[in-house]
Design goal:
Distance between the termini: 32 Å
Strand order of the largest sheet: 1-2
InterPro entries: Fe_traffick_prot_YggX, Fe_traffick_prot_YggX_sf
Family: Belongs to the Fe(2+)-trafficking protein family.
Helix content: 40-55%
Shape: globular
Number of domains: 1
Pfam families: Iron_traffic
CATH architecture: Orthogonal Bundle
CATH topology: YggX-like
Number of helices: 3
Protein name: Probable Fe(2+)-trafficking protein
Radius of gyration: 13 Å
CATH superfamily: Fe(II) trafficking protein YggX
Keywords: Iron
Length: 90
């Protein structure tokens, strides 16, 4: 049975994540208030950011940068700036 959450990113009720995918308080906040759909949108952007910025996930500074972008995207509706990427217009 799917969990339904009010997705803070999509501003609607949607299927929630099956389990907490991110550690700590931010992970709990994502689990409680971000849908599978919104998290999948973030994962695509995260991949682009990692590749574009040549981020190393073993590096704490790079992880912090990515976490800030994730929180801004999921909870504040801020699109990350990705060189050469133009988001589709609605």
């Amino acid at each position: 049975m799917a969990r339904t959450v009010y997705c803070e990113h999509l501003k609607k009720d949607a299927d929630g994540l099956d389990f907490q995918l991110y550690p700590g308080d931010i992970g709990k906040r994502i689990f409680d208030g971000i849908s599978k759909e919104a998290f999948a949108l973030w994962q695509k952007k995260q991949t682009m950011l990692i590749n574009e910025n040549k981020l190393n996930m073993m590096n704490a500074t790079d992880r912090k940068f990515l976490e800030e972008k994730m929180v801004a995207f999921l909870f504040e509706g801020k699109e990350p700036t990705i060189e050469g990427y133009v988001p589709p217009t609605k």
